TrEMBL record:
Official protein name in the record: Cupin domain-containing protein
InterPro entries given in the database record: Haem_Oase-like_multi-hlx, RmlC-like_jellyroll, RmlC_Cupin_sf
SUPFAM superfamilies from the UniProt entry: RmlC-like cupins (SSF51182)
Domain of life: Bacteria
Upper lineage: Bacteria, Pseudomonadati, Pseudomonadota, Gammaproteobacteria, Enterobacterales
Amino acid sequence: MNKEQNAVTHVIAREQIRAITHVDINGEKHLLGQHRDFRRNENLAHFIPESGRLSFAWVRLTDGETLDVHQHPTKSMIIVCSGSVQLTGDEPRQLYEGDIVCVEPFRNHGFTTREGETFHGLSIQFEGKGLYEDEQQARVTFSDALNNLYQVNETLVGRHQENALFQLFSSGRLQKDVQLRQRFVSALYVWSRYFQKMVLARQALSITPALQEEYRRHFMEEVGHDELLRVRYEINDEVYDPILEAASNWFVSQMYQQDEAGKVVVVHLVVESSGHVFGLATSEIFHKPEVEGDYFDVHAEADDDHRSIGQAYLHSLPAEKIQSLLPLCRQAWDMMDLVHERIAAWTLQGASS
């Protein structure tokens, strides 16, 4: 750095920092929106000290642009200087001007704007090169959005199998207590009826040709299972639990509120995945070798296939759409856990310990 550079105070406009709009990772081009690393400007590169190696970049997304979910090996700070933007990934939330996001290393995160929305921000790293300072060797790894959704779903399946109802299954009490077993199937019948309403509503409202035939086959395989349960287990008791009713009806309501992608997540990633592990756990308790097509055996077998319905459709969607389904997936599992917990509570109500 010469004396003239030392003596001059430089004011650098954002536009004087060269922007890049895409980065190539493993042969695949990813949109960055607009990324301006401070060190791409000669004056800033001289001014920012190498010791401590802070790295700054102006970032911008506008009018529906999305920075896909990614992670990097260094912590990063993003300052929302103007506008607003949606944080996606592990902890989605809406961000507004003045918000500061501190991202720990290897945390999945991304950003997306709505139509007409613009976000200007600062991206700051505190050690090593900036994330895109070396455009040929960017320090980021972009995640496969659909695989990330599947991984989150499988994690929540594992959590689901630890809920109160699965604990009841593993306790051995249902095998030993006929009265407890009857209370269980009576409470389960409430959920079974709402399940029928859910698939009926989904079938009636489907408008996507690519899914209609899959949905039709699924509907034909599921229709009447509530009656199968009632007849096989001679269910005559009326069960009324307001929380169970509300939680079960939530799934029906989603068929009227969600688009096709949301319905696939609710019905097939969540409900059918729950039904599969539920069927495996209960078929050991209720298995009747002399009865073909028992309710519990059917769900242990069929629901595994039903989980795959709509997956080709999800594969056709852009990454930002898949990312937007993560909160719904988590919410649906919360509601499915609540359904199970209320069934377990009703079953155990008044039972001797």
